[in-house]
Design goal:
heterodimer; A: about 250 residues; mainly alpha; globular; B: about 220 residues; about 85% helix
């Protein structure tokens, strides 16, 4: 067994993961807090107003990170789903359900902030545009995973069912996206791309990158913290979990 | 013998044929609701006809999913299939094909008449039938994954509708736009080809995914 597979298997063991996650939490939480505080201050207060959209453009500092994460989390759930189905790794099963909750939250934030922006900019809360509609459908996909997880009583069975749903969903998400894009689009193109120099000045996009990174780290912190609780609850009959619980008491 | 498996499926559906044909009845009733809720002006109806036909077909398919694995889990079919000599995906592919024959095919035929009643042109009504012919097997295939995931639950019908309707969006978009194009007198090949693509993908993947799902929830 080489070093890579050994690490992989160690990570999959709940007690090791529990301890590792506990150590990683402050390394995610504090940088997230600092980046978010500075990024939001720089973005919402210091950055100049947009020449067309005025202060309205500042929604970008909430909307874009949330939208990015909503897609990232769903993809990561499908990856975790493959791991859960193939290697039956408990940690991946736990990740699936806790990530779904966070993903639904970020999707809802992206939709709500977009609507708040759309009202003054487009003059309407909602348009049947490709990006908006596929984000809404993504929200329904998250709700489906959460509902399935709630409905199946046995946690391991529920996790495997959610894994299959996430994998089927992730094959479908690009098809949904392109089908609705073809159907109707009004949303402005991406403001940031990896391959081009951004069209906005540094005082605008640096805070955006800060906020995006901060939101990523915050998500990592959130999901690890929740997973620790879920793992402890699931393994409550194991001696290591009892030892941890006694320590805390 | 594989022939015996096919015969068993056909016979099982034939015995409960009235239940199986309920999909068709649901399709017809849902289609009728729209003209009743609107001003039944033919030109106005023709505008919404693509959405009505496809929306009704989606709902009829979703309602039909509940019967897909209900009996099978109860009478031990699944345990036999898991230990039998034929791979489960193959058995499921046969099952889905027969299910489509009873639930999807009648809807395809009825859609032509329903389209004409909603004020579509002859060409558009033909495209409606063709688009449903290409699209309803995809609906059944995707739906079988959701039906398998909820097979063990009492009252899983609502849940499987929630799981599967978002996944139906591409079929709805391509199917309805084919009819709209045909009604406008334009070529509807592009969306029909895309429906065909989705159909091929579903034919390959849906039996496999349903088999994995059935195994996962029956362990």
């Amino acid at each position: 067994m080489n070093a890579l597979t050994r690490t992989f298997h160690r990570w999959g063991s709940p007690p090791t993961f529990y301890r590792f996650a506990g150590r990683a939490l402050p390394w995610l939480g504090w940088p997230a807090l600092l980046l978010l505080l500075h990024g939001l201050y720089a973005g919402l207060v210091q950055a100049p107003a947009d020449y067309q959209q005025g202060d309205g453009f500042r929604i970008i500092y909430v909307h874009v990170p949330a939208a990015w994460l909503s897609l990232f989390i769903y993809t990561s759930m499908a990856v975790a789903g493959v791991i859960a189905l193939v290697w039956r790794m408990k940690v991946a099963e736990v990740y699936l359900r806790d990530a779904a909750l966070a993903g639904a939250g970020f999707t809802a934030v992206a939709l709500a902030s977009g609507m708040l922006w759309g009202q003054p900019m487009w003059g309407t809360w909602w348009v049947w545009d490709a990006r908006l509609t596929s984000e809404l459908i993504l929200l329904f996909l998250y709700l489906g995973v959460l509902a399935l997880d709630q409905a199946l009583p046995e946690p391991r069975q529920a996790a495997r069912a959610c894994a299959i749903l996430a994998i089927v969903g992730v094959i479908n998400v690009p098809i949904v996206h392109y089908s609705v894009e073809w159907w109707n689009t009004l949303h402005q193109g991406s403001s940031l791309s990896r391959f081009e120099k951004p069209a906005m000045p540094a005082s605008m996009y640096v805070p955006l990158l800060e906020v995006a990174l901060g939101t990523m780290l915050f998500y990592g912190w959130f999901v690890l913290a929740r997973m620790r609780g879920s793992i402890l609850l699931r393994e409550r009959r194991q001696s290591w979990a009892r030892a941890v619980a006694m320590e805390g008491a | 013998m594989l022939r015996a498996v096919i015969a068993r499926e056909l016979q099982a559906y034939w015995l409960s044929r009235y239940e199986a044909l309920q999909s068709l009845a649901v399709f017809a009733v849902v289609v009728v609701l729209f003209p009743l809720g609107l001003d039944p002006e033919p030109t106005q109806l023709a505008l919404i006809a693509p959405a009505v036909l496809w929306g009704s077909a989606l709902l009829a398919c979703v309602f039909g999913l509940e019967t897909l694995f209900r009996q099978e889990l109860r009478d031990g079919w699944l345990d036999q299939a898991l230990t039998g000599r034929w791979p489960l995906p193959l058995l499921l592919a046969i099952k889905l094909a027969v299910h489509w024959l009873y639930s999807g095919a009648p809807i395809c035929l009825a859609a032509g008449a329903a389209g004409l009643a909603l004020g579509l042109s002859d060409a558009a009504a033909q495209v409606a039938m063709l688009s449903l012919l290409l699209g309803t097997p995809t609906l059944v295939g995707l739906g079988s994954v959701a039906a398998a995931l909820t097979a063990n639950l009492t009252g899983g019908a609502m849940l499987s509708a929630l799981l599967v309707l978002p996944l139906y969006v591409p079929v709805l978009v391509f199917g309805a736009s084919a009819i709209t194009l045909a009604q406008a007198g334009q070529g509807a090949q592009a969306p029909l080809y895309l429906l065909g693509c989705l159909l091929l993908m579903t034919l390959m993947l849906a039996p496999l995914a349903s088999a994995v799902a059935l195994r996962a929830v029956s362990e």
